[in-house]
Amino acid sequence: MKISAEQITAGILAGGEGRRLGGVDKGWYVVADRPLIEHTLERVKPQVGRIVISANRSVPRYRGLGYTVHGDDTDDHRGPLAGIATVLKAAATPYVLIVPVDTPLLPLDLVSRLADAMRPDTDIAVARTPDELHPLHALMRRSLLDDIQAALFSGVRRVTEWQQDTARVVVDWADAEAFANINHDEDAEALAGRL
């Protein structure tokens, strides 16, 4: 099953509250002299046909980057699962790549490896490093929108809980830092040398 870049929309999740960074909008948090959103766009853009940003604040600033920006349907901060639903709703392609805005070392082969793992009976391909699963780094079918909306309506908030009931395949990366995210200033300092 061959999936082309043109069949994929990247959904960048930039709607978090950034509590552990003092409430800053993570997308505009600067690491190695550039905001995280720029690092993410640089790594994702060559791999997909379209990009949508899910953001609940700084919307005009994100739009200034030249991409479509959508906020959650409600303002009750239901977390990344709601952001994924927002992206799936906005996408016009059969597949959507989900990535958070705070992982600046995203692999340049992320899409190709996840797409290669998809089969006709697979709904989601999820990245995993030696230490952990990364449910917010996933390629999924856009047709899962109704399923996510039903999960949200029933009170599900955790992405891992929702994914457990899907036809999921896991793709391994040897680099433990490939999906390292920035939650504290110390995280940024540790990753800056690789950027």
List the main descriptive attributes of the protein structure presented here.
195 residues; alpha/beta; seven-stranded mixed beta sheet; 28% helix
Provide structural commentary.
By secondary structure, this protein is an alpha/beta fold. 28% of the residues lie in helices and 22% in strands. It is built from 7 helices and 9 strands; from the N terminus they run E-E-E-H-E-H-E-H-E-H-E-E-H-H-E-H. The chain has helices at residues 36-44, 59-63, 80-90, 110-117, 145-153, 159-163, 185-192, and strands at 8-13, 30-31, 34-35, 50-54, 68-70, 95-100, 124-128, 133-141, 168-172. A 7-stranded mixed β-sheet has the order 5-4-1-6-8-7-9, with helices on both faces. The longest helix is centred in the middle third of the chain and has 11 residues, at 80-90. The chain is globular and about 40 Å long.
Can I get a quick summary?
The protein is an alpha/beta fold and 195 residues long.
List the secondary-structure elements in sequence, H or E.
EEEHEHEHEHEEHHEH
Number of helices: 7
Distance between the termini: 34 Å
Beta fraction: 15-25%
Order of strands, main sheet, comes to 5-4-1-6-8-7-9
Major β-sheet annotation: 7 strands, mixed
How would you classify the helix and strand content by structural class? alpha/beta
Low-confidence stretches: none
Shape: globular
Overall radius of gyration? 15 Å
For the secondary structure, the number of strands is 9
Overall mean pLDDT:
90
Helix content: 25-40%
